[in-house]
Fold this sequence. Notes:
The first copy, chain A, is mainly alpha-helical. In chain A, a hairpin with a 5-residue loop joins β1 and β2 (37-38).
Amino acid sequence: MNIGAAAKSSGVPAKTIRYYESIGLIAPAHRTESGYREFSQIEIDTLRFVQRARSLGFPVKGVALLLDLWRDRSRASSDVKAMAMEHIGDIDRKIAELQSMRDTLLHLSEQCHGDDRPDCPILEGIAG
Amino acid sequence: MNIGAAAKSSGVPAKTIRYYESIGLIAPAHRTESGYREFSQIEIDTLRFVQRARSLGFPVKGVALLLDLWRDRSRASSDVKAMAMEHIGDIDRKIAELQSMRDTLLHLSEQCHGDDRPDCPILEGIAG
DNA sequence: CTTGACCTTCCAGTTTGTGGAAGGTCCATA
DNA sequence: TATGGACCTTCCACAAACTGGAAGGTCAAG
Lengths: 128, 128
């Protein structure tokens, strides 16, 4: 399978596959005589794993760790769970921050007429 | 006021003030004979505005627009409100995405023993 | 043999700063 | 007056995670 087919099959864009290879997240692909990359089913599976882990918000370095655990048949599931819980904590902090922004903005917006007049509690609120 | 005092007074780090100047978000500061930047109270107020708008999650380009509206005494408050509502929409989308990640991760984590055994529904879930 | 869809590498840009090096300035104290 | 420490200056590099585009090679069908 060449990179275009691998991209379609894994959900990771061709450009991104090359990028992942360049940063060492995935192993360098085998090449045909003419230099085209070739991907086996195992490599497609790996790419799909990466894609899913990324879509769960794990940073690329976290995905690298997850890949190591995934391939380590003697891993302890507690190690994986610890990573997941820590990541959930990160997500919770982000949600809380966004929620706080949202609350403030909504509060300010509710006080703003939103008409042709210049009077604007939103700007006043930001100015403090 | 030199840049260090401006930083303390506005909450924007000195390095970041220089950066904002370099990208044109704020006007170039006046300089003393020896080349030090000097900030007036108005500039401190502007920096504080920028700091607050950023902390509400507005991107730098959005802050630039807000600054324009802030300084435009003939603005319509509806323009400001529209920006705020759009930004709230962005935030809502981010929150929803994070919430979805969180739900999936928590669901997988709940199925994982988290002990010494290698069996791990989290990795299985990511692998698909 | 040509054409179009692939593939290759490499460089640049995105966003929002942060860290650090090399060197000039200012003020207080010895 | 000299000197030391805390400022300030510019400039370059790095962070995360890609994405776009240019220039050029390859493959398969008609």
